[in-house]
Amino acid sequence: MSDGFTEIGRALPRKEDRRLVTGRGRYLDDLASPGALHVSFVRSPHAHARILEIDSAEAAEMPGVVGVFTGRDLDHMTTRLRLAPPIEGLQPTELTTLPINKVRFHGDPVACVVATDRYLAEDAAECVTVEYEQLRAVTSIAEAFAPDAALVDDSLSSNLVSHQTLSVGDPAARRAEAHRVVEARFALHRHTHVPLETRGCLADWDDGRAHLNMHIGNQVPHPLRSQLASRLGLSESQVTVMSPDVGGAFGQKIALYREELTVAALSRHLCRPVRWREDRMENLMSAAHAREYECRTRTSVSETGRILGLELEIDEDFGGYCFYPANYMARVIALIMTGPYRIQDYAYEVRVALTNKCGAGPMRAPMAITSWVMEGTIDAIARDLELDPVEVRRVNALGPEDLPYKMPTGEILEDVTPRETLEMAVAAIDVAAFRERQTQARSEGRYLGLGLCTVIESTTYGSEFYKSAGIPGSGHESAWVRIEPSGVVNASVGLMGTGQGYESPLSQAVAEGLGVRSEDVTVHMGNTDIAPYGMGSRGGRGATAGGGTLYLCALKARERVLAIAASMLDLNDAGGLRMRAGQIERMIGDDWQKVGLALTDVARRAYLDPLVLPEGIPPGLDFSQSYDPPAMTYSNSTHACEVEVDLQTGAISIDRYLVAEDSGTILNPIVVSGQQQGAIAMGLSGALLEQVVYDSSGQNLSATLADYLVASPNELPEFEILHHHTPNRRTPAGIKGMAEGGVMGAIGVIANAVSDALAPRGVTIKRLPLTPQSIRALLREAAPSSMKRTQS
Amino acid sequence: MKPAPFTYHRPASLAEALTLLLRHGPAAKPLAGGQSLGPMLNMRLARPAHLVDLNDLIELDSLRVTEDTLEVGALTRHHRLANAPEVQRSLPLLGAAAASIGHYTIRQRGTIGGSLAHADPAAQLPLIAVTLGATLVISGPDGSREIAAADFLQSIMTVDLRDGELITAVRFPLPVGDLWAYEAFSRRHGDFALVSVALSFSRDAEGKIVALRLGLGGVDTVPLRLPEIEARGQGRLADENTIRDLAIATATAIAPEDSEQVPAVYRRELAETLVVRAFKAAVNREEGA
């Protein structure tokens, strides 16, 4: 931990827990709104179909129904979403608020029923009849790219919505020189976010003031406000976005979704508050999906396993609609693929397909597949050359002597420690002892495996990143810090927490910068009339972008406080002064000593006695600051995991899981630990259980939580966490981001561990999830036909 | 996820419940623990016009052991079955199966009558009832009748229950073999099993298998008892060879549904594995291993 901090790094309990664990949180459904109308969406039962006619006459006459609105109606109330950033290879797209001519996935909303309560709205929604002409559904990447494929978006020339390539150095020449060229394949399946609290909003149009109050659990209130205002033809001063407590988001609550815009437009149209609570089936089917990729690597290696060149192909299934530019997620995978390894000759090709499935979006670690692809490639090299996988990692890993390291894509790695975390993890798991156990177990017919996965986690995402990614908005954050007349501190930043536990760590960043106790700082988030503009919470940027900005703003406040204190102490300047826990201290000799002056005294003077302030110092104590962090900061970690595979059932049990992680300066170890555990749990849950399933006609078969399986604590092991802290030299207080790397590492490490366990049976994991039935299928395929299955 | 409109009834007696069920015929649905019916109502997969809540009929929450029967009232919760000493003593297989249902909160609400009437092919209690040859007591407009569990369960969520009828009790014949096991394979703790096995037998003085009962869940539209496998095992030593032979024979005897998600061959493999594990668990428990 960095020296000298008194507030940063404290294990301060999460401030929000008082209300959250005593059942006094206020979520969307806790907000009363007398007379609010409720909506229910009529959704498409087909994956791909023309809308011929919508008959809502019967529904409109039903009790309590205020109206039934279709895509045509909404097209008069809202503008369309056009995404056309100047990015080579990206086709521009345009969306209406609700579909008018065609539905593009099972669950696509085609009409919105507004009624006096949700029950009546659902009764009426059943009575809206939609006549469809079914079209051939595109349900896989291969189908999307087939020459005769049906077009998912009729306005595009093909389903290849985004296509980028890059070649750095000379990978083809490296291939020609290589001792061996190793090929490997990785297919990650479709996931969805499953926040405990589904999407929802309460739109309250005040016709007198011509103002919309939009209550919505959202990660990015300011960009959402800009979107909402623009799509409704309002100014930003006519829209206030307010996020109450939010029960999870994981990337699902960034975009302005069509349902939410519909609700806002209808509140304005009807001059009534209108609310929508997405139900679980809608959430699983129609909110946003993620992670469906097929990747291939071709690696040129020397005899010792040294990587000479890497060629990567990424295909992504983006679903039916672009709520984000289609290059957004896959681009980061390609950008950081080489990660912890010394590779300079590198090429990639990224192709993104539109299909008749729910639209894709970022999900906690949008680049999650990266570490599995890179580390699975390393293991493939080790297998192919019969080398120790630990040695292949050592031969290629970046060490301190390589830093700062410019990756072939131009990304700069600095203050990262992949070799150190690798060695920590290898030592802690005791690889040699494991190999002995593994050999012994195999002789008893038991199959143990060890996986390793080193992660370079891209975090923070400054303006430079978003600009090059084509995402509207910038990557900077703003903050204000206000010391009130009594000396307590209020502060605000543009982030919005959705369960991370921001309130303590962010108040610690303020307290550290200012010199007060974190307990005396309150951080306000989620109301666009109160919070300053910021890009919000996404991409592991809360700590650096949010905490960093607050810290800088607090430093500015401290400077003023000390200047006033100096004048109150009749000193010429504040040179020998500091503040700790709200008390002014002065360096006397070699010691800091209290001088009997507190922040409360300074605040009183600033607010209530401004006439005696020194010349040039304005009354009051409020400060603002903006900060644009680096395009990226990088954290790193190495995951290690031991598994046992039950050959009879295909079940996988995790015997041990550990991670050595370097996430720089830690604002609050309780919150960081929660993020580490949560991220690993999410990664393992995804790799082992979760899967969005569409059949070949595009029907979603995983629309309940009995079908879309999420891990519970029963399915997860204890996680051992080893800490390593290397501050980032370019950020305030050395902060880096974290909270997504655990997902990346967990997916890679479990896949690698299972491949290791099943190596004697000739099985390598190329496709997730690791369901017991898929493991059995691999074992059946691998078994020589003469070999009969035997029972243990 | 809001149910279609219905009228809610809460009868105070069995007679009143039966009257309501008869009056509303197919439009009525009894509500016991609600652990399956609740979600089905919310998803509008079940849309009864009348919901008859049985939860005041506490006389149906009962356990009675006689020399030759364990009688379980239809409203008995899984939690009680899993923990009642009289079940532990007389029919530990039933208690173990009940203990494995869902999660703690589900077991507090779910009832044996509800589970049988719902007839999920992978559920625990229908499997135990079929394997042990339980009889259901059903009350209706013409008094009460009895029917074997195996006859009552007709297909997936399809049972022999006519308008105005209600399961009031389940009778398990006693005694059963003193060796037993319930083995299930599910994706997560508390999920419905992909395949489950219920096993009960005794060993005679020479160690040979007698009174063998073997049932499988999740391999057909209803839980299956396998009399031909029972006959095959009868009189043999419960050794490796016998166990493997019975397991392979079981896997051959069943014809599970084939789906992309869970192929038939996988369910067969699980059946084979679980039969082996059930025998081993039963023998190990007796031998204290």
Explain what this protein looks like in three dimensions.
The complex is a heterodimer of chains A (792) and B (289). By secondary structure, chain A is α+β, with helices and mostly antiparallel strands. Chain A folds into three domains: 36-135 and 195-249 and 253-287, Alpha-Beta Complex (Aldehyde Oxidoreductase, domain 3); 366-462 and 631-782, Aldehyde oxidase/xanthine dehydrogenase, molybdopterin binding domain (Aldehyde Oxidoreductase, domain 4, 2-Layer Sandwich), CATH 3.30.365.10; 476-627, Aldehyde Oxidoreductase, domain 4 (2-Layer Sandwich), CATH 3.30.365. In chain A, the strands form nine sheets. Chain A has a seven-stranded mixed β-sheet. In chain A, strands 9-19-18-17-10 form a five-stranded mixed β-sheet. In chain A, strands 22-30-31-32 form a four-stranded mixed β-sheet, with helices on both faces. In chain A, a hairpin with a 5-residue loop joins strand 23 (477-483) and strand 24 (489-493). Chain B has three domains: 7-53, Uridine Diphospho-n-acetylenolpyruvylglucosamine Reductase, domain 2 (2-Layer Sandwich); 59-173, Uridine Diphospho-n-acetylenolpyruvylglucosamine Reductase, domain 3; 179-287, Enolase-like, domain 1 (2-Layer Sandwich). Chain B is built from twelve helices and 14 strands. Chain B has helices at 14-24, 37-42, 78-83, 85-90, 92-99, 104-109, 112-118, 124-131, 149-152, 227-233, 240-253, 264-287; strands at 7-9, 28-31, 50-53, 63-65, 69-73, 135-140, 143-148, 153-155, 158-159, 166-173, 179-185, 195-203, 209-217, 224-225. In chain B, strands 4-5-10-6-7 form a five-stranded antiparallel β-sheet. Chain B has a four-stranded antiparallel β-sheet with strand order 11-12-13-14. In chain B, strand 12 and strand 13 form a beta hairpin. The N and C termini of chain B lie far apart (49 Å). Classes of the chains: A alpha+beta (792), B alpha+beta (289). Chain A binds chain B through residues 118-119, 122-123, 126, 279-281, 648-651, 689, 693, 695, 701, 704, 706, 709, 711-712, 714-715, 771-773, 776-777, 780, 789, 791, and chain B through 1-5, 39, 43-44, 185, 187-192, 244, 247, 260-263, 265-266, 269-270, 272-273, 276.
